Amino acid sequence: SWTVAEFIGKGWLSSFDYVSIRANSREQRLIDSLKKRGADGDYQVKEMNEVLNRETSIGRLYESVERYARGKKGIVYAVSIAHARRIAACYSAHGLEAVAIDSRTPASERRELVEAFKRGKVKVLVNVDIFSEGFDCPDVEFVQLARPTLSLAKYLQQVGRGLRRSADKASCMLIDNVGLYRIFGLPARNHDWAAMFEGRMIGNALSRARAETGRLSVSGPLPEEERQREDELE
């Protein structure tokens, strides 16, 4: 079987830059406070929505896109329908044309919005478990993770929407606002799928993530003044 790193090395997938919230950031502490689990073993949607669907958190999501993906087109993965709509409203209010798509969006309207996105009329698609797989738009320039998950498959499906190669982009910016890097590592690592399916990966990974205090390097160093004023992402 092939790893993501091997696909990138062979030129079949796009290269990427990756930024993540810091281990001691406000957002990471909020995510660490999530205790409830759904029937699938993942974080409970209701609790995630209560904790993360707040004006301050959504404002930090926008600030991340403005800093790391300004002018790019991308996909945002939200916690809930209410969360997605609130994110889209915030981005649009700041002049970044964004729309929310979820299971309640009529099929015809969904097709129109996706086409508008592909043409560049819409810059950001905010979705709830709609574009995790089976979505083909190679020129996606950034993916923003705003939904915590304990599922390796979901994590790779989400970042994978931005790793399709396109002549119109040099690389994809992955903006991890929920600290999935500390659970699963970078998308290009050789993941232990057997451990995940046996339930061993999540507990060990969460323990390591909560103990971690080191930095995550991106592809190029930030200017000194950027590092000084940056307190949430690395």
Your description of this structure?
- This protein is an alpha/beta fold.
- It has helices at 4-9, 26-32, 45-52, 55-68, 81-93, 107-119, 152-160, 181-184, 193-197, 200-211, 224-229; strands at residues 16-20, 74-77, 98-101, 124-127, 142-145, 172-176.
- It has a six-stranded parallel β-sheet, sandwiched between helices.
- Residues 1-12, 196-201 and 207-230 have low confidence and may be disordered.
Shape: globular
Q: Assembly type of the shown chains? A: single chain
Helix content: 40-55%
Q: In this structure, how is the largest beta sheet organized?
A: 6 strands, parallel
What is the number of beta strands? 6
Strand content: 5-15%
Distance between the termini: 31 Å
Q: Widest sheet: strand order?
A: 1-6-5-2-4-3
Summing up helix and strand content along with how strands pair, one would put the structural category as alpha/beta
H-E order: HEHHHEHEHEEHEHHHH
Our count of helices gives 11
In round numbers, the mean pLDDT is: 79
Rg over CA atoms = 17 Å
Sum up the structure in keywords:
alpha/beta; 234 residues; six-stranded parallel sheet; single chain
Give a brief rundown of this model:
This protein has 234 residues and is of the alpha/beta class.
Topology, pairings included?
Layout: H1 4-9, E1 16-20, H2 26-32, H3 45-52, H4 55-68, E2 74-77, H5 81-93, E3 98-101, H6 107-119, E4 124-127, E5 142-145, H7 152-160, E6 172-176, H8 181-184, H9 193-197, H10 200-211, H11 224-229
Parallel strand pairs: 1-6, 2-4, 2-5, 3-4, 5-6
